[in-house]
Amino acid sequence: MSKFEFSGKTALVTGAGSGIGRSIAIALAEAGAKTVVAGRRVSELEDTAAIIRDVGGDALCVAADVTDEASVSALVGQVGPLHVAVNAAGTVLGGAVDEMDAEAFARVFQVNVTGLWLSMKHEIRTMKGTGGGVIVNIGANIGARIVRPTMGAYAASKAAVSSLTRTAALEAISSGVRINCLCPGPVDTPLSMRPGEDRAARDARVAATNPSKRVASTDEIAGAALWLASDAASYIVGQDVVIDGGASA
To answer: Would you state the pLDDT for residue 1?
Structure first.
């Protein structure tokens, strides 16, 4: 699927066991990158690696918890020279502001914000030491552009992702590290379904509210991520790139 070239480069993808992260890891491998797939569930990572190898790619699985700094440091340390990092690890927990459990609220921020910060911290350090690189963070149109009832914790965490991305981008660009945030709308993954919804109900809900009348495929998000990571986007720094079918417009 790729029109971009990453031969001779090493790419790290967190949250690569499923969904958007898996599609991005596969796309990077198809484009020639040696791809390190990371996440908490080893069996899912192995499935991603098997797909990569089936298409002739090179994959390494590393179990890692992005909320634990020692785990993140060990992960990045195994990669060696790092040219591209895509931080796709994330979680969604819903609830009204006056009803949400404090532990659930904290968990959303622990994964989506602290996990992202720790990942960037060690990725940037490694990239600075080897001449630069590109980081693509996976945010969301919710928080970056719009909000939804019962999605306060998630929206706030993704707004923080966008802000943290911009700050890190300004700090790191002089060292040759280029950072941006990709902000998808509804994507064809289980995370896009509300409690009690099946895929058909989700599709009908999105079709009724989204100008494009559908959810995005994970391959569409992967294509945008590869573009942001490629030299074609070399002058794009510290931006939210929204890919949501017109929902935030």
So the answer is: 47
